[in-house]
Structure of Quinolinate synthase:
Amino acid sequence: SDIELEARIVAAKATLGDRAVILGHFYQRDEVVAHADFVGDSFQLANAAQTVPNAEAIVFCGVHFMAETADILARSDQAVILPNLAAGCSMADMADIDSVTECWEALEDLYGTEPDETDRVPVIPVTYMNSSAALKAFCGEHGGIVCTSSNAATVLEWAFERGQRVLFFPDQHLGRNTAKAMGVPLEQMPMWNPRKELGGSDAQQLHDARVILWHGFCSVHKRFNVDQIDKARVEFPGVRVIVHPECPMAVVDAADEAGSTDYIRKAIAAATEPTVFAIGTEVNMVNRLAAEYPQHTIFCLDPVVCPCSTMYRIHPGYLAWVLEGLVRGEVINRIEVPADVAEPARVALERMLAVRP
Ligand code: 13P
Ligand code: SF4
């Protein structure tokens, strides 16, 4: 039962003490968040993985790419554990190393590899944190960098200082929304299309490009739409609409603000007057905020279809299982990025960590 699971987790944690640390993403279910030593957005969790020196194990309650990142950044003698190995991210799966390499080679054919007179290379690759370690390694090896939704604009500025243009993967929406807010015109943000020959108007569009977008998207955030925002504004005049930048451009444009999960949390925490908030992000997080801040009215723009099903796969039963494994001295579901991938991936991640938002 839930009560038994809760008791097993509490008991295992008490036995382990600071030998194990539990990190949890904001999208985790309440029954998991209740046991986390640190809860945050993906940038904060990447930082946290570097700042738990006493932990022999980091139990990562989030999705696969986050656990990989923790493993890359943590000390090699610290085991990173993903309680359920089936907790992936469908967006991260939308870009793989072979297709990105194919795109990169086509762009090299088109733009060459020589820097211009201001020493900017033709293209800088930027990967969203929501990507495999192999893609982070690709960025590390090709002068590129990682970004999260909380630092995407600062990272793009970093990239534009070093490159004439950016190849941004996997999330088209974060790339488009961020570059648009920085003043890049939409016609200078073509989407890479591997099925088209590099000729005719496509080649011209790519030639003029400032940001080349990959076709990935988040299946949770793409469900938000402008009708939901319009409806919220009719029902609650004065409502503050805040959405995650993984939402489509029209939704971000129609909202009052867009920002990472931590941005959303802080915006609500900072509101001094009772306020109505309509939020466009994962529903578990929104419901938790609604319970935490009863002085405000807080609701998800789409309460029916917006849980992240893979985040939800971290059931307390898995958490109890891996913690009890650690008590017995057994490491279950370890995520280990091979050194030849981890080293270049760390280069790209450290570039990001050095560029403060
Ligand atoms: P944050 O970086 O805002 O936590 O977002 C992570 C994520 O997966 C959003 O879908
Ligand atoms: Fe991936 Fe979307 Fe889930 Fe975030 S909400 S982990 S981007 S599927």
Summary: The longest strand covers residues 121-128.
